[in-house]
Amino acid sequence: MEPKLLVARAVTKLLLQYPFYGSLALALRMMQDDTIETMCTDGKSIKWSANFVATLDPLQVMFVITHEVLHVAFKHMFRIGKRNHKLWNIACDFAINAILIKMFGIEAMPEGGLYDPQYEGMSAEKIYDLIKDMSDDEVDEITGGRDQWQMGDFQEPKDGNGDAMQEAELEQLSDDIDQKVIIAADTARAAGKLPSEVQELVDIMKRSQVDLETVVSRFVGGDVPADFSYRKINRRSYMMLDMVSPTIAKHSVGHVIIKIDSSASVRKEELQYFLGICNQFVEEKQPESVTIITWDTKVRTVTTYDKGQAIPDLKLTGRGGTLISPVFQYVEDNQLPCDYSIVLSDMCIFDYPERPADYPVLWVSPDMRSKPAPWGKSTWMKAA
To answer: Alpha carbon of 319 to those of 88, 220, 264, 323: distances in Å?
Structure first.
């Protein structure tokens, strides 16, 4: 069968049997490119080599196309950071193929595909951490000593001129992928065929669209307006705009305690973004006091700012493990006044107090994949 026909029939079968993956494959451009060895994606299209596809049976073609679709859905090309590209690609393939083998069976994976049952259920980041210190010989043992071990790969996104995308272009592409994934998920849900791992993925993407400033503003003191006032927008340096905007002035909301995880899980730029939002509501809502508590396995610093005082940049100390119970216990033992509390943490917490606090608590995590706290309100932030 002609490779082009094999690809078309594979996408059609995916639409019927696995509508999420088929819909997302259709949303991406399927392009024949005989300059590549196998199949790859850059987040905008899926490119395939006719010579490679010709070596596959119909089930294997479905497997490899779905493999590329998952690279896009999981946005592996954006999550690489400063990791080694080869090892990151290996980790991503292990994570993806563990999902696909449950769908299609081991026989559907073409020769050269990477699979190890010990990595089932793990994220690519977790797998990478387990293999990042492997020697070259150990990596060669996994890949068979081949540079092109992949049956499919992901590439760095390029602009129309073939140059690396600028940050704004990458952000737009990331947003475009989110929308395509959400639409494909809606299609699959309507057919009653939305995989659980996809539902979790969609939840994460929707979290990335949360307006943290609005969430914090509504959480602290509700939405009871006093009047309208005109003032300059207060942002950190990356958000500064020399303009005046109408805003709603708020009544004082009492005492606020902000608990900041200093256990190396919150990056500096995330902390600055978070503090910028906190200063926004301090100016708008004029709490009687704001107390900043930094903590890791214990309380490290406690600083209180009176009404109208801005929260300065913080230098975090500690940077150890993560225990939250001592922080709530400290507030209780020292009878700190608290009408609202906001916690900034990656939510990698295993000692949540069994009894909820006697005051409203908003949990804010910079990790889109973190689980919500067992009580209080949880939200997620995407630092600008």
So the answer is: 26, 28, 5, 12
